[in-house]
Amino acid sequence: MSATDGGNTLNTRAEIANAVERVCLNTPLPVDVHTHLYSARFGDLLLWGFDELVTYHYLIAEVCRTNRSVSPAQFYAMSKIEQADHIWQSLFIKESPISEARRGVLTVLESFGLDVAGGNPAEYREFFAASTADEHIDRVFEVANAEKVVMTNDPFDDQERPIWESEGPETDERFLAALRIDPMLVNWEGQAAPRLAEWGYDVSADLSGKSTAEARRFLVDWCQRIDACYLAVSLEADFVYPADHSSTKLIDEAVVPACIELGIPFAPMIGVKRQINPELVLAGDGVGKCDIGSVERLCVTHPDCDFLVTLLSRENQHEFCVAARKFPNLKPFGCWWFLNDPSIIEEMTRERVELLGLSFVAQHSDCRILDQLVYKWKHSRRILAKVLTEKYQDIAAPGWQLTEAQIEADVSGLMGGNFLKWIGRA
Ligand code: HDL
Ligand code: ZN
Questions:
Q1: Is 20's pLDDT higher than 60?
Q2: Which residue, 349, 386, 367, is CA-closest to 137?
Q3: N or C: which end of the chain has fewer CB within 10 A?
Q4: DSSP E strands: which ranges in 358-424?
Q5: What residue spans in the chain does CATH classification 1.10.2020.10 cover?
Q6: What is the pLDDT of residues 196-242, one digit of tens each?
Q7: How far apart are CA 15 and CA 27, in angstroms?
């Protein structure tokens, strides 16, 4: 796209700033590339509403450190409503709800036109109770100005698997599928091999015989069953590739060949330290710096496979950008989990633009609760606007001519449009 395509040139710093903010706040979100949301047909796997929003595991971690009069065990023994009331009192009423996860709840309530100052959970519960899941999905996608989200679909989940087996691919076009295979690469012997054998795949715990060919067949079968747009796994901070470990053999002989055969990216998400505090259950995971060399070796060993990668540690981000400069088949995405905070989103987005231009996916929400789609993107859009205003003003200074249409194309790409083009689903 040339500088003069698509309308009037933006001539001043103020015109650029206004245009960038307008575009970032109003461009439809083409796709949120990683969420834990589900379409309505998955029933109670889709979480939404006040009590789910307030008992998000990020807030469970915060309440367990803020109000130690209730132990994690006592908290988890409560009902969902008791948990929500406890968090609301501890984290919103008794002290300022100033953390990002608490601020997000306020943004959601305001976005639905609810009385934030009133702080009345009964009113909030009444609002959500008045809608069906289908109605609320429509509302959230409209308020968030979102077009699509990618789900996290786990064939090892006994509640989710039968729905795919009986009903086939997703019919709600707003929900794309991604196959999530943690047990295969994290616990092949104890978890994945027995299940695949149970499902009729000729595999063994020691990966002998046809095991990797059969593991590949399982992946192809499921990616076709759910029409997966990528194949994902969360790997711990100590993940190493290659290694004398079943994960290397499975990546080389099953995962990568399946991705190449299907024409979809492999999406390793690396850096979690699982259950550093088991008492916190889902809120008990931590973060660790991973070996960027393993990412580099994956990309150089498999040049015909595309890698959609996110790393959990802030300390990995600069070397991650440098690695992405070296490997066209490596696309960084999002500010994942503990990085999804304004100060770090700004730092990461700035260094990614400076080193990668527009060839990355700026953000994903990681939403577990449908309503979070509203706040996670509302917050990120503003930060994207702040960074891009500066960067566009920097290139306009020596005389480069900018139009709003060009900025719209850039922003839509950064918000997931370039991922959809990359996988041929734009
Ligand atoms: O493994 C993942 O996909 C992570 O995003 C975890 O689900 C984590 O618990 C989370 O929700 N992070 O935001
Ligand atoms: Zn996630």
A1: yes
A2: 367
A3: N
A4: 402-403
A5: 52-129
A6: 999 999 999 999 999 999 999 999 999 999 999 999 999 999 999 99
A7: 17
Mean pLDDT over residues 61-81, rounded?
Answer: 98
Q: Looking at the chain, how many residues does it have?
A: 426
CA atoms of 180 and 270, how far apart (whole Å): 14
Q: Which fold has domain 154-167+177-222+233-333?
A: TIM Barrel (3.20.20)
CA quadruple 327, 36, 125, 54: dihedral sign: negative
pTM over 0.85: yes
Angle, to 10 degrees, between the axis of helix 317-326 and the axis of helix 292-301? 20
- CB 368 near ligand 1, within 6 Å: yes
Range 52-129 classified under CATH 1.10.2020.10 = yes
Asked if omega into 242 is within 30° of 0 (cis), the reply is yes
Sign (positive/negative) of CA torsion 273, 278, 232, 309?
negative
Please enumerate in sequence order all residues whose Cβ is within 8 A of that of 401, keeping only pairs 6 or more positions apart, or say none.
3, 4, 9
Give the distance (Å) from ligand 1 centre to CA of residue 403.
38
281 within 8 A of 72, measured Cβ to Cβ? yes
Q: Report every protein residue that has its C-beta within 5 angstroms of ion ligand 2.
A: 366
Give me 90's structure tokens.
């501890």
138 by Cβ neighbours in 10 Å (0-12 / 13-18 / 19+) ranks as middle
Chain centroid to Cα 69, Å, comes to 33
* CA atoms of 34 and 19, how far apart (whole Å): 28
CB-ligand 1 contact for 366 (6 Å cutoff): yes
pLDDT of the residue at 7 = 75
User: In the prediction, which pLDDT does 6 show?
Assistant: 54
Q: Is the CB of 365 under 6 A from ligand 1?
A: no
Terminal-residue alpha carbon distance, the chain: 17
Positions of CATH 3.20.20.140 in the chain:
154-167+177-222+233-333
Per-residue pLDDT for 3 more than 50? no
